[in-house]
Design a protein that fits this description.
212 residues; mainly alpha; Cytochrome Bc1 Complex, Chain D, domain 2; 9 helices; 2 strands
Length: 212
């Protein structure tokens, strides 16, 4: 017997399959606003893609990130001025965690593709063990970052990075030693001596006494 209270668009088969708890399930059209939103997104997507991903220099999100990163680094570097690219500077900043974070940013942006995100090694050697192929002293890290190594397999960065970036990324690379990341690339080269101890704090009174 038909239930006249049922909606006219419900078939007998639908009624037979309906639960007996009084809940009715009906088809409803998609809200008009959602259809308009979908249409707007479809029209917007090509314009967005063309503007940001057509190869125009400076428009991509990567370009914007690099630009903002460079501006931030300039603000950071204003605190320390122009560093000297030498052994003493690499050792000094090796023991300054705040500045090592800047070196880490430079590393992630330029070195991680070859040496791994954590220094575990990929194309390039593992930086987290105690074996080195081309390094006998911490100053050699600075030299290799500047000049490259292995007939260009390790590129020279002296024309691409500022002196401050080179010093800080060299210090950061040195700081990875001994981390022994799981799954890291097998060690290459020989075990070398430990890095130099942190420099002693300058005696603030010494300069004053010499002036007097």
């Amino acid at each position: 017997m038909r239930d006249d209270n049922k909606p006219p668009f419900a078939s007998d088969a639908d009624r037979a399959n309906e639960p007996q708890d009084g809940i009715e399930v009906r088809d409803a059209p998609v809200p008009r606003w959602s259809r308009w939103l979908f249409l707007i997104l479809v029209l917007f997507a090509p314009a967005y893609f063309f503007f940001y991903h057509n190869g125009a220099e400076g428009r991509s999100l990567v370009d914007q990130y690099d630009r903002e990163l460079a501006e931030n680094l300039q603000l950071q570097f204003a605190e320390i001025g122009e560093l000297q690219a030498n052994r003493e500077a690499v050792v000094e900043f090796l023991y300054k965690p705040t500045w090592l974070q800047i070196g880490k940013v430079v590393y992630k942006s330029n070195c991680a593709s070859c040496h791994g995100q954590e220094g575990e090694g990929q194309i390039g050697p593992n930086l987290t063990d105690n074996r080195y192929k081309n390094i006998r002293d911490i100053e050699d890290i600075l030299r290799i970052v500047q000049k490259g190594a292995n007939a260009g397999a390790m590129p020279a960065w002296e024309e691409r990075l500022s002196t401050n970036e080179i010093v800080l990324v060299a210090s950061y690379a040195a700081s990875l030693r001994g981390n022994e990341v799981d799954g890291g690339k097998a060690g290459e080269g020989k075990i070398i001596d430990s890095w130099p101890a942190p420099p002693k704090p300058e005696d603030a009174t010494k300069g004053e006494a010499e002036e007097n």
